[in-house]
Amino acid sequence: MSVKAKKHLGQHFLTDETIAKDIADALTENGYDNILEIGPGMGVLTKYLLQKKVKTTVLELDRESVAYLKDVFPVEHLNLNTSKEKFAIIEGDFLKQNIEEIFNKKQVAIIGNFPYNISTQIVFKAIENREFVPEFAGMFQKEVAMRIAEKEGSKVYGILSVLTQAFFDVEYLFTVPPTVFNPPPKVDSGVIRLIRKKDYSLPVDEKFFFRVVKTAFNQRRKMLRTSLKSFKLSDTLKEDPIFARRPEQLSVLEFISLTQKLAENGI
C-alpha cells in the first residue's frame, strides 16, 4: 500500500531516511512531553519520532494518508517502548485545530515536512500558541526557512523574520535538495529549529507591535517616516533618527523600541 501525493495538499513525500532522522533529531526533547507532527504523509519522519521518549501525535488532513498510517503504525505493533498512550493519529486540518484543547494545556513541540502552501500560516499559528509551544522544527521551502531565520540587514529579512524572532530563537540547520522527494518540488528545502525564548512576552501591546511591523514592511524600501505615515507622526517624532532608517535595518529589539516610542506619543 502506498499513498499518491496530492498537489492541492502540497504533498511532497520525503524518501531519504537519513534526512528524516536528522529532522527528528532536531528536537531537543527538553521541556515538553508531547510532539505534534503535522502532515506525516507516509510516516517517514513518524518512525523516528516514535523512538523518542515523549508522546507523538500525528495530524493529517489526507484521508488516504490517515488510512495508510493506521495500517503501517497500528498501536499493537509499535515498538515495545511505545504504548497506546504514547501515540495518536488525528485526522484534520492543523490550521483549524485547538492546540490548547488537544493537549490539555500541556507543552508540545511541533514538527513536520510542512506543505509549502500553508507553511507560513503554520508558523503564525505556532506563534499565537507559543504559551504551549516551546519548540518548533521542520522543513520549509528554503526561501521561507531563510526568511524566518534571517537577521536585519538582509533583503529577505521581513515581517516573518521579526514576528518569529520576537518570541523564538531561530536556527537554520541544513538544506535539502529536491531529489529526495516524491514527487520532487521545483526548489530546495530548508530545515530550521525554533526554541521559545525564556521571556516570550512583549513589553508593548502585542497587536500594536504586529501592526507596526506589518505597516513598516509594506513599503520596505522607504524610510520609516514614510512607511509609517499612516500613524500620523508628529514633526518632533519624525526627527528621531530611527525614522530615517528602513525597516529591514531594524533588529527585533529596535522594532520593540519603535513600538514603544509610538505608544508613548499617543499613537
Task: Report what the structure shows.
One of its GO terms (cellular component) is cytosol. By secondary structure, the chain is α/β, with parallel strands linked by helices. It has two domains: 7-196, Rossmann fold; 206-264, Helicase, Ruva Protein, domain 3, CATH 1.10.8. The chain is 31% helix and 19% strand. The chain is built from eleven helices and nine strands. It has helices at residues 17-24, 46-49, 63-72, 99-102, 119-128, 142-149, 159-165, 206-217, 224-227, 235-238, 252-264; strands at residues 13-14, 34-38, 55-60, 87-91, 108-113, 135-141, 168-176, 181-182, 189-196. The strands form two sheets. It has a seven-stranded mixed beta sheet with strand order 4-3-2-5-6-9-7, with helices on both faces. It has a two-stranded antiparallel sheet with strand order 1-8. The chain is elongated. Residues 76-84 have low confidence and may be disordered.
**Would you count the extended β strands for me?**
9
Mean pLDDT: 92
Strand order in the largest sheet: 4-3-2-5-6-9-7
State the domain count.
2
Residue share in helix: 25-40%
- The fraction of residues in strands falls at 15-25%
At CATH level 3, the topology of the largest domain is Rossmann fold
Q: Number of helix segments? A: 11
Distance between the termini: 60 Å
Q: What's the architecture of the largest domain, going by CATH?
A: 3-Layer(aba) Sandwich
Overall form:
elongated
Biggest β-sheet: count, sense, barrel?
A: 7 strands, mixed
CATH superfamily of the largest domain, please? Vaccinia Virus protein VP39
